[in-house]
Amino acid sequence: MIFMRSICFLLVFLACSFVSDADADLVNGGFDGSVSHVDDCARVTGRIPVGWRDNSCWNLSSRVEYDTAISPSRRGKALQVVLRNGLFQLVQPVNLRESSKVRIGAWLRADQPMVVKLALRQTNAPYPDYAARNVRV
């Protein structure tokens, strides 16, 4: 679950590469496992579930604070994100089999209306989206 304090654009995506025999399961997809500290840049701080990483430091206007929360959540733990400015990207690389079918889903909640983009995106430039959807939260 993701909480926001400002109306903003949010991008959560799974970065993918295609291989012939790899498993596409997410690591810690329910945020139930251990956490690690985010320390890639001073503008992005806090703790995120192991297996996930932040990819927001490239955007100089982004100011993000992460933390894990027990409740309220749909099941298991939740991830709380406070976005002060800009946008954030919460990512997890996955390997997919060629011609595989993938279903992406997330349970999101915000304290103000916003647009959320969920995307399955290539990990290398030019970073094309294989599938994406903008939804109102």
Chain-wise SSE layout:
Blueprint: E1 9-19, E2 35-37, E3 44-49, E4 53-54, E5 63-69, E6 78-85, E7 89-91, E8 94-97, E9 115-122, E10 129-136
Parallel strand pairs: 1-7, 1-8, 1-9, 3-5
Antiparallel strand pairs: 2-3, 4-7, 5-6, 9-10
Description of the molecule:
With 137 residues, the protein is mostly beta strands. It has strands spanning 9-19, 35-37, 44-49, 53-54, 63-69, 78-85, 89-91, 94-97, 115-122, 129-136. It is globular, with a radius of gyration of 15 Å. Helices cover 0% and strands 44% of the residues. The chain has no helices and ten strands. Residues 1-23 have low confidence and may be disordered. The relative contact order is 0.32. Strands 1, 4, 7, 8, 9 and 10 form a six-stranded mixed sheet that branches. Strands 2-3-5-6 form a four-stranded mixed sheet, with no helix packed on it.
Throw out a few tags for this protein.
disordered N terminus, four-stranded mixed beta sheet, mainly beta, 137 residues
Write a short abstract of this structure.
The chain is mostly beta strands and 137 residues long. The protein has strands at residues 9-19, 35-37, 44-49, 53-54, 63-69, 78-85, 89-91, 94-97, 115-122, 129-136.
- What would the average pLDDT be, to the nearest integer? 75
Q: Indicate the overall shape.
A: globular
Alpha carbon gyration radius: 15 Å
Give me the count of strands.
10
